[in-house]
From TrEMBL:
Lineage: Bacteria, Pseudomonadati, Pseudomonadota, Gammaproteobacteria, Oceanospirillales
Key words of the record: Amino-acid biosynthesis, Hydrolase, Magnesium, Metal-binding, Methionine biosynthesis
Full protein name: Enolase-phosphatase E1
UniProt keyword annotation of Aminoacyl-tRNA synthetase present: no
Listed GO biological process terms: L-methionine salvage from methylthioadenosine
Transmembrane parts of this sequence: none
EC identifiers of the protein: 3.1.3.77
Organism of this sequence: Salinispirillum sp. LH 10-3-1
Pathways involved: Amino-acid biosynthesis; L-methionine biosynthesis via salvage pathway; L-methionine from S-methyl-5-thio-alpha-D-ribose 1-phosphate: step 3/6; Amino-acid biosynthesis; L-methionine biosynthesis via salvage pathway; L-methionine from S-methyl-5-thio-alpha-D-ribose 1-phosphate: step 4/6
Summary of the function given for this chain in its UniProt record: Bifunctional enzyme that catalyzes the enolization of 2,3-diketo-5-methylthiopentyl-1-phosphate (DK-MTP-1-P) into the intermediate 2-hydroxy-3-keto-5-methylthiopentenyl-1-phosphate (HK-MTPenyl-1-P), which is then dephosphorylated to form the acireductone 1,2-dihydroxy-3-keto-5-methylthiopentene (DHK-MTPene).
Cofactors required: Mg(2+)
Self-association and partners: Monomer.
Amino acid sequence: MATLELTNIKAIVTDIEGTTTDIAFVQDVLFPYAYQALPAFVRRHSESPEVAAQLEAVKLEMGQPDAAMDALIDQLLLWIDTDQKVTPLKALQGMVWIQGYETGDFTAHLYDDVAPNLQRWAAAGKALYVYSSGSVQAQKLLFAHTPAGDLTPLFSDYFDTRIGHKREVASYAQIVQKVGLPADTILFLSDIVEELDAAREAGLQTVQLVRPGTESSQAHPTVTDFNQLVL
């Protein structure tokens, strides 16, 4: 097995979908579950402060401050249908997924190489972070309900689109500030070239994960799984 050796890595920021987790889990399990359960969920919990705040954010995104509940639900479902990375949708999906995980409707998918390497890196003193377009809540839920058990204690922090979109350099500059380490000591792992481009422009080291179905790029170092990384 070919390996990729990287030096002076003190922190690792990992993407989820297509990097730690099969895209099919998100596309074929999480999204359909949210699509089916979300309408009843928002109607039932619309008066709770957490849900109400997100529904107000949906109205702002729509530019319709007086939108009725039916219109809000239609917009949320449209965003799911078109795979839009809209922050209030992601927050509401995370709330819906809680019930799915907690009732055992599904367990999070991780590639087999992920948990052992996350544990190894953490034991070696590497600070671990997640940066995903899914909400922080959804990230924590996923890593708390894996076949390897609850992995959330391994991570120092989580970032979502509230810090910025994943193809923008400024997002990674903010993450560097939050991590509090020199940018060139932070490794970003993702399957998406445009995300890696933005991270590299912010000074981070980058590696593309070429999982099944991912097209390899010549623009960044590549590996097919975490076992190939020597840090």
